[in-house]
Description:
Blueprint: H1 11-24, H2 32-59, E1 62-63, E2 67-69, E3 72-74, E4 77-78, H3 80-103, H4 110-129, H5 133-151, H6 158-189, H7 194-202, H8 212-227, H9 235-239, H10 245-253, H11 258-265, H12 267-270, H13 274-294, H14 301-322, H15 325-344, H16 346-356, H17 367-387, H18 396-417, H19 423-450, H20 463-485, H21 493-503, H22 508-516
Antiparallel strand pairs: 1-4, 2-3
Helix pairs in contact: 1-2, 1-4, 2-3, 3-4, 3-10, 3-15, 4-5, 5-6, 6-8, 8-11, 8-13, 10-15, 11-14, 13-14, 13-20, 14-15, 15-19, 17-18, 17-19, 18-19, 18-20
Amino acid sequence: MISAAALAVLLAPLALALLALIALGHPGAHPRTVARLGTVATWFGVAVALAAGVATALDGLVESPTVGFAELGVSIRLDALSTIMLGMVALLAVVIFRFSVTYLDGDDRQGVFLGWLAATVAAVEVLVLAGNLFLLVAAWVATSLALHRLLVFYPERRRAVVAAHKKFLVARLGDVFLVAGAVLLYVRFDSGNLETIFQGASQLQPGWAFTSVGAAALCIGFAALLKSAQFPTHGWLVEVMETPTPVSALLHAGVLNAGPFIAIRMAFVLDDALPATALLIAVGGLTAVFASVALLPQPSVKVALAYSSAAHMGFMLMVCGMGVYPAALLHLVAHSFYKAHAFLSSGSVVDEVRAAKVALPERLASPFRVAGSALIALAIYLPLALLFGIDFGADWVLLAIGAILVLGTTQLVAPALDSTGGVAGTVRAVVLALAVTVAFFALETGAHELLSGTLPEDVGRGALHLGLIALVLVAFTVVVLLQIFEPGRAKTARRRALAVHVRNGFYANAYFDRLIGALRTPRTEPEVVR
């Protein structure tokens, strides 16, 4: 459905962009005007998101006419994906902006910070609403440039500048890939309209042949991987911890998700190229496994959360490669709210844990109890899978997703069953595992229904994909067992030495630094402790 009224949804990011301009006139401490207008603008974004959701529910796909030239320009696409993403970003903006007003109260450049924060959120909102390649690419680049100003908000902190410089280089490479993919799609379909491209791509058969659409899909895959700090370009994400806490929340809960979002948005294109989906499975799965191991011995809560984000991004991209896009979107939304809360509350949580001095039950490291935990997780999963109509014989991808879910719930049950905590703790863990499994099936079913018609339904994957997923499942199993058994094992000198290597991510980041020369940044003044 074509409707000029769809352009009205741009009022949400325009309000934030106007707020960013107003902040230029109030750059200092206690910018009360900016704070008040920011509250109004962020809540206005929530109202616009609700209105967009109603319009989508009533009319399905709603597109605005393209304002531009030769099928390239500004147009808005309202569908289930864009309205869900807009609602998520708008709610996060309300929370993060409100936190920022208090967190930076009295800072000499609080107004500047709030202005760049508003500009970054505005760019993300335009990205998820874009209905044309031109606007999609422009918003993609704008999110990175605006975020960069937040990452170097304290330019005297050299480590923050180094990390931001490295992120800037990686992001520009990602921009090049996305632009290349957009050009290839525009030339192939003679249009920048996303619906026209999706309709054309849906008529093609998935394959390994090197075509213009296949090349575009590979470029989009690389852009998604680079945007989401995937191995070996993950280093900047774990180093950029000296920025203000709201920046970390916005980065991990919003901007970082642009990688999985672009993969979900361009699903029709990706599904035409088996090399592109295999790339997402391979690199995403590798990053998920690598980052899940690297986060275990981290002494810093924020660094561990950063590795966690890289792992989650990798998992989402791997699921996109498998073709289960509704599950990837569900994971994206859940991770965004979880990670925003985790960063905004990280300081107070550390204080509470230190004050509480909770005595944890002793771990037993019993293989039989761990095996029993896996059987309990499987017993929870199988009846619910049958209840929700999962046919494992029809699609091995669903079998792989089920295996991953069982591994996750095993990790919930095992710490209680494999300990001296008693029966009550085990019962609580089993109930929690049951609740998580029911929630997964219910929410995934709901996401599938909401996105029906917006994303590809029938996916084709080859033997290579099956082999890659099997390798990832084996690696996930090893990581889960490591996480379960590690707390109960004795701390030998060899294991302490290994922990040092793991804590440093096996030095992959150092090798990447040498490769791109990320440490050669402009000289800054010595770091000032605040």
